[in-house]
Design a protein that fits this description.
By secondary structure, this protein is of the alpha+beta class. It is built from 2 helices and 6 strands; from the N terminus they run βαββαβββ. A hairpin with a 2-residue loop joins β4 and β5. The chain is globular.
Length: about 100
């Protein structure tokens, strides 16, 4: 089962290839996406990395969270988005 990680405080000049290479220290990276600003298309310093297994995802968090890259400390955590129902809407746990 893959694990999706959110990565914040990325250097704005970092490419998806560089991000994949960085996270490959922890294991097999299945996908990488750096999010651009809507108004100009330039990287906004935030992205997502999907690791092949949960163990590799946890290893990536422990290895890379807080690591300084080009003067910026990365913020790496497991992405816990709400599940989507069959209509594409996000569901919430209701009490």
């Amino acid at each position: 089962m893959t694990t999706r990680l959110s990565v914040g405080n990325l250097p704005h000049q970092m490419t998806e290839d560089q991000l994949q290479l960085l996270f490959s220290e922890a294991g097999l990276v299945t996908s990488v996406k750096i999010i651009p600003y809507l108004h100009n298309g330039l990287p906004c310093g935030f992205g997502f990395v999907e690791m092949n297994t949960m163990a590799e995802g946890q290893k990536a968090v422990s290895l890379l969270n807080g690591r300084a890259i080009e003067g910026r400390c990365l913020a790496v955590r497991e992405d816990r988005q709400p599940a989507r129902n069959s209509f594409g809407s996000r569901t919430r746990n209701r009490r």
